[in-house]
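Lecture 7, part 2: worked example. A protein chain together with adenosine monophosphate.
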Amino acid sequence: MSIVPESERPNPYSAYGAHGSVLVLNSGSSSLKYQLVNPVGGEAIAAGIVERIGESSGSVRHTYAGNTTERELEVPNHAAALRLALGLFDEIGPRLADAGIHAVGHRVVHGGERFSRPVVIDDDVVAAIHELVPLAPLHNPANVQGIEVARELLADVPHVAVFDTAFFQALPPAAYTYAIDRDVARAHGVRRYGFHGTSHQYVAGKVARVLGRRVQDLNTIVLHLGNGASASAVRGGVPVDTSMGLTPLEGLVMGTRSGDVDPAVVFHLARNAGMSIDELDTLLNKRSGVKGLSGENDMRQLRRLVEEGDEDASLAFDVYVHRLKKYVGAYLAVLGRVDVVAFTAGVGENDARVRAAVCSGLEGLGIAVDEERNAARAGEPRIISPDWATTLVMVVPTMEELAIARQCVEAVEGLQPSAAVPAG
Ligand code: AMP
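Predicted complex, written out as structure tokens:
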């Protein structure tokens, strides 16, 4: 298999442009990221971020037509943040009235068992996202706030919720069920949900398109390695396993999250270190991962420490890679046949050393990286495995905002989900 040049690839989204642009909003607890996206070509027409919402000094950065405007100012809440962003569209451009906004897409972290696809938002959907707060206490409240403010300020266009968990609602029961008392699990929604679904779905689909294959014919392992990190096994476009669970804490070693640990670590520390539930939550989510082991959560800083001979940083890197390799091996077994291993997100797209370390020693399984191909830098999807390898190793930049924008068009127009669109 090889990459089909872009000019020879059919674009299944070419009709989406008739619907104008999509404003994608990603509300965090103290930030609001936004991007105005062209759903056909995928380019960001304008993008920005409001940070430190609710603090005494906040900031906004707005980029349009190659120019970035930055300002420091107090932003009391999400309503003020969105008003600020809308004001910058008017002041610096592009004017939203001229951009022909077709829909506003909201990234929502937890959709529970209720949402397996994007939905056009009405009051019932807002209430349902609110009901899911116990499953995502840090994320869903900010998402609800962002939705409520945006529906008020941009009342003339449909708003769509795109859930991080939706893609993984198709997991088989054997993969999503925890082996704990079934009554307790059912009563409290305890199961594996999976996260980063928009990215895993986009990358699995993109792999097929750039190779000129149908997504239904490919088995892919997607490694989304950013500050948060997750792995998935995708058979014919349908997920069959993923590393994140009830929350984004399970699975791979991340920037500040531990990933898999023996759950008894929690009981042990509660009993012997007198730590409260909240302290343990903070320990495993914010003070663990490569940061917990080395003091640095950013892979670039970690690598700098490794090069300076820092032993804690070396161990952190080794633990990170070891866990990743275990997941690749597990998903090889789950899938039986793997056509592509795809690296994506900040670390996966940029760190050649991580990619080489994960694949080293797997030659006997048909997986390897070619040193020169791996070292080359490009913003486009590319193959980094040698010609003899039976599994392609690829770097595929993720574009979550674009994926959200296309899913918005599909939800509003009632079109087929994009992952099912064959490459032709
Ligand atoms: P993301 O969450 O996808 O934005 O990824 C963020 C992470 O990507 C950061 O914490 C960095 O560790 C990592 N990253 C970004 N650029 C590079 C790079 N050039 N080399 C290594 N890691 C990088």
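The two ends are 16 Å apart (CA to CA). Residues 419-424 have pLDDT under 50 and may be disordered. Keep this in mind for problem set question 3.
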